[in-house]
């Protein structure tokens, strides 16, 4: 004796809409199975509609995007910063050179004269030292005493 | 050769349309957020977690939009991403922690209360809310796979084959899960008759 109504599996097929021809034909001829199918379908439909209505009422939180252009802008800003730095350094060097030259030009004439005198004194001192060394070489016996005296005398002369 | 060329001609605009749809994230969110939120919320049963996953899904989809090949609808693609994120999240300790607290469990009375009452009588509206609440109560007690497959089939109206691909299960396994879920729902609804 065959079951006069749909089996569990056939009900599932009927509810999912993935049913064979014989299930569809049965539903057409069996009000009880049709009613049962519609009852469950209605409950699922109510649940589905309620879920969507509820979801639509939820206020969406703002989605903050990290733009794909951000890295590019970062790269651009890095290059810009590097270029600005290079420009600033070049500008600084350009500005500094004339200032150094002008500072040199602005040195007092007295200072320059003193510097020349210093140089002349240094030259004279070096010449005296040179003479002293040559003298020591000529009289190696008295190197400890006479040499020192002569050198100190020469320095004293130069200092005065 | 002609057929291949024709299919390219037919296929290209669809894909191009889909990609352009994905390019505008505001439009993407506006179009798909409600359905995605519903799917994720009922899959997880936690509203806060669902909100977070929905946001992450949109960001991930936007980031990976170039990989979308237009082989399925955008909604299905989003569902698939969300499902992967849910699974990833479920593996974490953090998920178990928040789950144990039931941070913001879905309030089915609130959900059922949103059913439009102006289109039906108060009695019928009340009955609809009761039915919706009953279905959710049954789904809550199902396994994650059974519940998700049920939602995919009845809420998202995905074909069995699509579900099989999205959830990475064989068609027969999907059918088995779906059958168990439907049977449970039918029995529970039947109890109140």
Content of β-strand of chain A: under 5%
Written as H for each helix and E for each strand, in order along the chain, the element string of chain A is: HHHHHH
Largest interface: A-B, 30 and 39 residues
Q: How widely separated are the two ends of chain B?
A: 60 Å
Low-pLDDT residue intervals, each spanning 5 or more residues of chain A: 67-74, 139-148
> Any idea what the shape of chain A is?
rod-shaped
Shape of chain B: globular
Helix content of chain B: over 70%
SSE pattern of chain B, N- to C-terminal? HHHHHHHHHH
Averaged pLDDT of chain A: 71
* CATH fold-level assignment of the largest domain in chain B: Rna Polymerase Sigma Factor, Chain: A
How much of the sequence of chain B is in beta strands? under 5%
Q: How many beta-strand runs of chain A?
A: 0
Question: In the CATH classification, which architecture of the largest domain in chain B applies?
Answer: Orthogonal Bundle
Kindly summarize this structure in a few lines.
Chain A has 160 residues and is mainly alpha-helical. Chain A has helices at residues 8-16, 21-29, 31-57, 70-105, 109-138, 146-159. In chain A, helix 2 crosses helix 3 (31-57) and helix 5 (109-138) packs antiparallel against helix 6.
Layout: helices, strands, pairs:
The complex is a heterodimer of chains A (160) and B (193).
Chain A (H helix, E strand, L loop, with lengths): L7 H9 L4 H9 L1 H27 L12 H36 L3 H30 L7 H14 L1
Helix pairs in contact in A: 2-3, 5-6
Chain B lengths: L1 H22 L1 H20 L2 H17 L10 H18 L1 H9 L6 H5 L9 H19 L3 H12 L4 H8 L3 H21 L2
Helix pairs in contact in B: 2-3, 2-4, 2-8, 3-4, 7-10, 8-10, 9-10
């Amino acid at each position: 004796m065959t079951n006069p109504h749909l089996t569990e599996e056939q009900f599932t097929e009927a509810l999912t809409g993935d049913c064979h021809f014989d299930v569809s034909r049965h539903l057409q001829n069996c009000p009880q199975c049709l009613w049962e199918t519609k009852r469950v379908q209605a409950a699922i439909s109510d649940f589905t509609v309620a879920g969507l209505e509820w979801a639509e009422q939820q206020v969406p939180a703002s989605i903050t995007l990290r733009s794909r252009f951000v890295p590019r802008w970062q790269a651009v800003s890095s290059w810009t910063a590097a270029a600005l730095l290079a420009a600033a350094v070049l500008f600084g060097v350009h500005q500094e050179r004339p200032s150094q030259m002008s500072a040199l030009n602005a040195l007092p004439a007295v200072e320059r004269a003193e510097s020349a005198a210093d140089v002349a004194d240094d030259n004279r001192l070096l010449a005296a030292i040179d003479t002293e060394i040559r003298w020591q070489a000529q009289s190696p016996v008295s190197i400890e005493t006479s040499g020192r005296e002569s050198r100190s005398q020469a320095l004293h002369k130069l200092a005065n | 050769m002609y057929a291949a060329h024709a299919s390219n001609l037919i296929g290209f605009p669809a894909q191009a349309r889909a990609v352009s749809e994905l390019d505008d994230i505001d439009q993407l969110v506006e179009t798909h957020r409600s359905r995605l939120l519903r799917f994720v919320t009922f899959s997880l049963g936690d509203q806060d977690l669902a909100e977070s996953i929905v946001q992450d899904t949109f960001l991930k989809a936007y980031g990976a939009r170039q990989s979308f090949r237009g082989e399925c609808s955008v909604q299905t693609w989003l569902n698939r991403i969300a499902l992967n994120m849910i699974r990833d999240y479920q593996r974490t300790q953090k998920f178990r922690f928040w789950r144990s607290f039931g941070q913001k469990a879905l309030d089915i009375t609130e959900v059922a209360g949103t059913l439009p009452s102006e289109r039906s009588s108060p009695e019928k509206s009340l009955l609809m809310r009761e039915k919706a609440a009953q279905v959710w109560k049954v789904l809550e007690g199902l396994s994650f796979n059974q519940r998700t497959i049920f939602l995919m089939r009845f809420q998202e109206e995905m074909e069995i084959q699509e579900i099989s691909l999205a959830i990475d299960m064989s068609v027969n396994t999907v059918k088995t899960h779906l059958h168990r879920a439907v049977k449970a729902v039918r029995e529970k609804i039947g109890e109140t008759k």
